[in-house]
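Exercise (ungraded).
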Amino acid sequence: MSTQPGLSSASGLSSPSVLAALIRDTFEEALARWLFWGLFGLSTLLIAIFLFVLRIDVVQGAVSLMGIVPTSHRIPDIHKFVNVSYAIVSIMLYIWGTFLAIFASSGLIPSVLEAGRISLLLSKPLTRTMLLAGRYIGNVLVVSLNHIYLIFGIWIIIGLKTDIWEARFLLAIPISIFIFAVLLCVVVLIGVVFESAALSVMVSVALMLISTILAQRQIVVKLLNSEWSRQLWMAFYWIVPKVYDLGAALRQTILYQRRVDWLTPLWTSAVFGVVVLSSAIYVFQRRDF
Amino acid sequence: MATEYAVEAHGLGKIYRTRFRGREIRAVSNLTLCVPQGVKFGLLGPNGAGKTTFVKMLLSAVNPTSGSAALFGKDARDPDARRPVGYLPENHRFPTYLSGRGMLDFYGALSGLDAHRRKQRIPQLLELVGLKDWGDVRIKKYSKGMLQRLGLAQALIHRPRLLILDEPTDGVDPVGRREIRDILNGLTGTGVTVFINSHLLSEVESFCEYVAILSKGELALEGKISSLVAGHGYRVAARGVPEQALDQVRRLGIAILPNPEGIEVQAPTLEEANAAVDRIRAAGGLIVSFSTTTGSLEEVFIRTTQAERAA
């Protein structure tokens, strides 16, 4: 069969322009949804709150704030104080940003699976894997923009006010994006199987909470009295994405400026994401629409 | 692979299973059908006959349980097989956040059309479907008829060789229907195969050359419309026929209708028509005319689906 002029000759499996069109469509849909404007609006609000709070004189403010803290816990200098602030803010943004991003993204998979929309998309010369990949990548890019805007904005404000530019704070950007990308795999799987935005939010948030509980393994393992239950706990710990561990590593890096083990929580979470996303693709390939 | 068929289905079947009980629902059964290239083809059938499932199997939106399908000789599961296909689904849901122009651009890109060609083609299509002034308006402001025309433009954007339209005039007012029909008529002689899935018999009859009727997921009838509706019965016009003779004719199970000249007898077979003539002539009635009648597609459809139902 000859290709018509102007028609891409690339296979439906590998055409970058098709992927770009799918990503652009995800962007346009995301921006058309009030939830995404809400996400950006809340980020702007947070930045505005920081602008307002930091209008107080930093040194005076720090001294006053330190006056509240018991003498034994007082932070000796302003540099240290700013670091503590950076650590607290980064964790707050990490949790807040991830939760809101999941909430805002939850409808993007079910919406594309609506009858009458999916059948038209599937009639085009593209693979189902590419269709899902376009949605996934587009979603991650939209949320990445928001995270960069929020975290970088707050970093600039704190830096301008204190003249302390803690570059490690910016680690919150890739870590937040990474954990969102992992949890988005769950949103995609639930979306493909059940077409339910609410259920995908429930499961993703539950995973965040479960990750926090499972991460207390050193305490819990001592409390469990049988070997199999300890093994089971640890098995779950290794399977579930390390939302808590990555947050803790971020806090330690900013606060204590020490080298922490990033690799283990990163690769185990990445494996979880890859397995879940592959399962979503597998189910999507076999579904009838 | 060179082939004379735009669509080929061999022993195609689809069984759905309910989620919890696993009960089997046979939507399409052992369907073998070939649509030659360049023809206007209508797929008919009552609700639930398996028409949409069949179309979706051609487009790989539904995975067949058995058999195979090909588009222009290429396995329908191959994404490249769908490259020459334009499709307008039934109950479509176009992205309402896009404008008409944006939607055509998106689906044009997915159809493999490069940016330069899309830029050229979109204004032409908006003009063709009468939406030139609506291109920059968001789709959510469009009426049903406008959406349908935009959907048609979407299906035509990459100059497909096979156009599959699922209920293309569903919910469209008569003027809109006429406009859609005119656009489709404009494709005559271009070599484009038009495959219409519709329950509007008159529409299929007036537009299509070939038709297939599905019933209970099986192919009940297939052929050229002109031959399916030809030579379908006999009509005898007469005058001066006594009431007694009319009763005799009625007793033969033959329908009698009044006409301006007297009566009209409608007989399904040649033997029954001759028996009616014998009775009328014997009673002194005068035969005015004797002719064959062509049935409508509606009659063919009802007879076929009823026979299938009875089987």
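Further reading is listed at the end of the chapter. For now, observe: Chain B touches chain A through 44 residues (CB under 8 Å). The CA atoms of residues 201 and 298 of chain B lie 6 Å apart.
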